[in-house]
Design goal:
12 helices, 17% strand, globular, BD-FAE-like_dom, hydrolase, AB_hydrolase_fold, signal, hydrolase activity
């Protein structure tokens, strides 16, 4: 399969994910509103990356009194580290806005042109940029959360765990109070070794990892270990230890096995960290299957609880 075909497949896959998100009961009303009617702001930072910011919707009392600082959700897109865009999550951002949450959907450098740890550096830089710009954005830097799918969930997990990646801004990293991860690969060594040898398909796990690292896990085990969130749990920073986690994972996922989420959640809990795993019985790597309503409710309650003052 040509590189063009792979990227076209990835775009079609992304187009499937977010209508599914928009179909969630709590997201439907906002997803029907055209993105052009929303007060989007696009910023360029972190060496030329672009971020789409959407402020929280003000209720009647807030509108009269003027805007007050809101919590913010950092949104990190998926796409196998080699495709996807910040605009993939606009439907989710509109739903978050109606929940009283600001959001920032970010781009990061893509493989194979950029090898790891570029993607982790960019995600961390975006979080630091939010902290720097909190007053200008009208958000509360001490009330930050995250949402990521697949490769984006992997990068978000690394960021929340304060994995050792190069600092690109001389600012103390803000702690994420809570994160939602959907379909996250968390042990890249095990993922490589349990995956088929075939590199031809666009959803080939080994193809994605070869693009990200340039080598397989057998040749670059140390790099794969550094890139695996699972191996950072035993060295949590004081900031990261207080993060709450909600993992969403399809039991029929053949791209990232649900065992990756199960092992990660168990390791977090063993370290004294608040972590819940919601297994989606008939869902694969894309979408939430027949439990969309429950997922929407769970995410909403999770953010409301962990981001309250």
């Amino acid at each position: 399969m040509s590189e063009y075909s792979v990227r076209r497949f990835a775009r079609r896959r992304t187009a499937v994910i977010f209508p599914l998100l928009a179909s969630l009961p709590l997201m439907m009303a906002s997803s029907q509103v055209s993105a052009q009617t929303q007060p989007w702001q696009t910023f360029t930072a972190c060496g030329g990356l672009q971020f789409d910011f959407l402020p929280a919707a003000a209720n009647g009392a807030q509108a009269e009194a003027g805007p007050s600082p809101a919590p913010l959700v950092l949104v990190v897109h998926g796409g196998g580290w080699s495709s996807g865009s910040r605009s993939d999550y606009h439907g989710l951002q509109m739903w978050l806005r109606q929940q009283g949450l600001a959001s920032l959907s970010i781009d990061y450098r893509l493989a194979p042109a950029a090898k790891f740890p570029a993607q982790a550096e960019d995600t961390r830089c975006a979080l630091q940029w939010v902290q720097q710009q909190a007053q200008a954005l009208g958000i509360q830097p001490e009330r930050l959360a995250g949402f990521g799918i697949s490769a984006g969930a992997h990068l978000l997990a690394l960021t929340a765990l304060a994995a050792p990646a190069a600092q690109r801004l001389p600012v103390k990293q803000a702690a994420l109070r809570c994160v939602v991860l959907h379909g996250a690969p968390t042990d890249l060594i095990a993922w490589w070794r349990s995956s088929p040898d075939d590199l031809s398909g666009p959803m080939s796990q080994r193809r994605m990892l070869m693009q990200l690292f340039g080598q397989g896990a057998d040749q670059a085990e140390a790099a794969y270990r550094v890139a695996s969130p699972l191996y950072h749990i035993n060295k949590l920073s004081s900031h990261a230890a207080g993060t709450r986690w909600l993992l969403l994972h399809g039991e029929q996922d053949v791209t990232v096995p649900v065992q990756q989420a199960q092992q990660f959640a168990e390791a977090l809990r063993a370290a004294g960290v608040d972590a819940d795993l919601m297994r989606l019985p008939d869902a694969g790597h894309v979408g939430f299957g027949s439990v969309e309503r429950q997922v929407a409710t769970r995410i909403s309650h999770f953010y409301q609880k962990c981001l309250k003052k």
